Model the fold of this input.
Amino acid sequence: MKYIIGNWKSNKTEKDVEDWFLVIKKYFDNSTLNLFNLEIIICPPNIYLKRVKELRDDNRLPIKIGAQNISPFGEGAYTGEINGRMLSEYAQYVIIGHSERRKNFKEDDSLLEEKANQAQTFNLKPIFCLPDEKTFIPQNVKIIAYEPVFAIGTGKADTPENANKVGEFIKNRKRDSVFIYGGSVTENNIVSFLNAGSIDGVLPGKASLDPHNFWEMIKNASKF
Ligand code: PGA
Done:
């Protein structure tokens, strides 16, 4: 099983989301690819979770939905927060600990552990992001995404060899983990990452925004 996890970050209008689905639907409808070994996940901004689920369901697309963040709290007086119970109506996965949140929103290890606990309470699978192999990993996390800061949004991906070494290290630390690489993944380099022994999937940001690029990545990953 290989994972492709598209992180849309803080991008797109609702119209853009609908257009993205129009294009990707055509690709799926005309495709003869074997997609059974692929877990395709899209992580839209929260405000589009409902629309993405409708578009996915109406078009019967083999796409899972992930959120980009989760409240560290449950329901209650937490103005502005979207909690796990709300997310679980639409999503199966949730990204936790992305370096953009660690940096811009000062999220630290104990907060991220609370978020992972909330995800578990509501049956959301955390996709836990780390800038390096030594970073704290909460106990109940299985999917681990290595995203070196220098590679995020820069067009300068890490080498597959180095990402593979980090994957081996992480899998030694946590035996049953699923190891994902993220940072400037494109349709051109995806195969080199998926070919590396310890890498179970990729987490493209920018390249997932364009449905043509995203389809190319699906096509290349379907060979594994
Ligand atoms: P990028 O982002 O593919 O645009 O580098 C990846 C990520 O931050 O998840």
In short: The mean pLDDT is 97.
